[in-house]
Amino acid sequence: MQRPQLSAHFASRQPSAIRTAQIEFMKRPDKVDAVNTAIGNVTLPMHPAMRRRMHALGEPGSPFLGGVCEYSTTVGVAECCEAVLHVIASSGLSTAGLKAQMTDGGSAAMELLLLGVCGGAGSTERPLLLIDAAYTNYKALAQRTGRATVSVQRKLGDDGKFSLPDVSTIEATIAEHKPGCLVVIPYDNPTGHYYDHASMVELARLCVKHNLWMASDEAYRELYYVDGPPSSIWRITEAEVPGITGRRISIETASKVWNACGLRIGALVTDNEELHVKAVAEYTANLCTNVIGQYVFGALKHEKFEDLQAWYKQQRAYYSRILTEVKAGLKSSLPGIIVSSPDASIYSVVDVKNIVKPGFDAMEFVLHCARKGKVVIEGKELTLLVSPMAGFYQVGKNEPNPGTTQMRISFVDTAPRMALVPRLFAELLHQFEAGR
């Protein structure tokens, strides 16, 4: 009997690089525990105001007191939209003229971005321009929506610093591929690279010069570990970059700064009225965003700026210590390893090209750790889950992929478990190398 056929898209689909390790680990029959740094699944508690609302969903004053959970408007609950703008303003940024569309996580906002500013379905016209290594979901969602992506590539130096390509290289890519939009992640996932204000202004000028939209993924805004105010697309002024107004978009989310990954609350924010109206029209097919999540996140609208800034400071102090300690531990355990400087976000890229035998493949190492690797620490069997980096790069058919020897580490497990990462990584790498 014949079976119904999958679409070509489904038939060719493979799990995201950031989920591969977890999927494979869940198939293991043994009782090994895993320190999971493959995905940015934050283990810290949410902001207190959000927790209070979550715990009081059935209490007087809650819209869910009677057990009714209706749709909201497609644009989102007014309080939640205002909370998004309030959070942006708390970073010292102007929100004049900004419009927010609530979405189911930042991922849905990314999908709206692709639908709104790139070429039509199945078309390579006006692709999305990324700066590699780039967050994998942009490419995955582009495939889902029939859009194309192109990229320019950063380089990871032996000093652990990522360097942006020069302007002429970016302009050559723009001239060749004619993208519709440039995506920047100022607090970069996956690299930990921080785009300072001068870099944002330089990229904004390119967008105006070549008539591109400029999208800034600000999931990690306020998670930076260098001096100065937070970098943002909303800090770029018309005086600095004439013509920038009306072409700016930011991706917002509750997942990272607010420690609410599973809440799945995000937003598409823009200073372009037409884009906003059409984004809402497109999202009517989704009906609305999770209303309980909107209610929980909406609590932030009522928090004072100074209290939110104290929260940011607390978050930065926590991650800064862990990032610094893990980086030092890795370099001590594996002399010659390259660890990207964790200047922002909650990630670092490690490159083992200088300490492994020829032919090393990060995906094979990741699968080894997930499927059978283990280390005994204080009588307990443990393994480590990390993300292979090849999928974060878009390279030509015959071009070498720098991600082959690179892996991303997310600093998201509890502090005591993150302290085990250097030893786990070193011993598992030695095991893997000895076996090939």
Number of strands: 16
Q: Indicate the overall shape.
A: globular
Strand order in the largest sheet: 2-10-9-8-7-3-4
- Classify the beta-strand content into a percent band: 15-25%
Q: Any idea what the CATH superfamily of the largest domain is called?
A: Type I PLP-dependent aspartate aminotransferase-like (Major domain)
Order of helices and strands: HHEHHEHEHEEEHEHEEEHHHEEHEEEEHH
Domain module tally: 2
Distance between the termini: 44 Å
CATH topology of the largest domain: Aspartate Aminotransferase, domain 2
Question: Quaternary status of these chains?
Answer: single chain
Number of helices: 14
Uncertain residue segments: none
Helix fraction, binned, reads 25-40%
What Rg do the Cα atoms give? 22 Å
Task: Look at the structure and give the CATH class of the largest domain.
Answer: Alpha Beta
In short:
With 436 residues, the chain is of the alpha/beta class. The chain has helices spanning 8-12, 17-25, 48-55, 78-90, 105-117, 136-145, 167-177, 197-209, 273-283, 291-298, 305-333, 362-371, 415-418, 421-434, and strands at residues 33-36, 99-103, 128-132, 149-153, 155-156, 162-163, 181-184, 213-217, 248-253, 266-270, 338-339, 347-351, 375-377, 380-385, 387-388, 406-410. The protein folds into 2 domains: 8-45 and 308-434, Aspartate Aminotransferase, domain 1 (Alpha-Beta Complex); 48-304, Aspartate Aminotransferase, domain 2.
